[in-house]
Amino acid sequence: MPSANMNLMIKTARKAGRSLAKDFREVENLQVSSKSAGDFVSLADIRAEKIIKEDLLEARPTYGFLAEESGEIEGSDPTRRWIVDPLDGTTNFLHGIPHFAVSIALEHKGEIVAGVIYDPSKDECFLAEKGQGAFVNEARLRVSDRRSLIECVFATGLPFAGRPDLPRTLRQLAQLLPATAGVRRFGAAALDLAYVAAGRYDGFWEESLNIWDIAAGTIIVKEAGGFLEPISPDGNILEDGALICANDPIFPKLAKIVREA
Question: Where are the domains of the chain?
Fold first, then answer.
């Protein structure tokens, strides 16, 4: 049975998702302000974060809160913190592409112990709690069992707007594309992680991510049996925002290519 915190996270993510779905139907009328090249924030994003912030802090007023738009609030309980991305896949959303999600994670003493990723376009709620397995809606999640690169489909992010990691990404793709069934770039890291947990992708890597992009997804992948490490072997995934994940047989092969490039 889900814990009280998990039930709260699911309810809140779905409520924020309904708000996003409503705004998505009117995406052409949204007011959009530019934050930086290739990075936008919409009124829909702000509205969804307000819903999440109010509901989580009302139910758990002592917990800390970290979110993309409103920053960090320190709670009176220093051991627990919500980590929230109210709209992962903002560029997709603004272009009318139905691939975006709400992401909510719970951190306890520096460790992610619960995560929810809700895709309102497909009504898929991916979730996991430490030691309890991973699920999408009520179905159990397991990573894929593929063992050969040529059978595998991977996901990554592609650098945009002059980001300096483009040459490295191109080297990685040059090694992977001829040896695999394909690489996808769908533009929502939270859902990329959820899809690895569901066995839809066989692996995922990306760098220059924010903690709210990946916090919930990391525990969902782990609880689905996936293997996950920072790109730099001595790095920290949540601090560095650079990770590799895959099923156990494929992970060493993917990690070798990504790291050597």
Answer: 4-140, 149-260
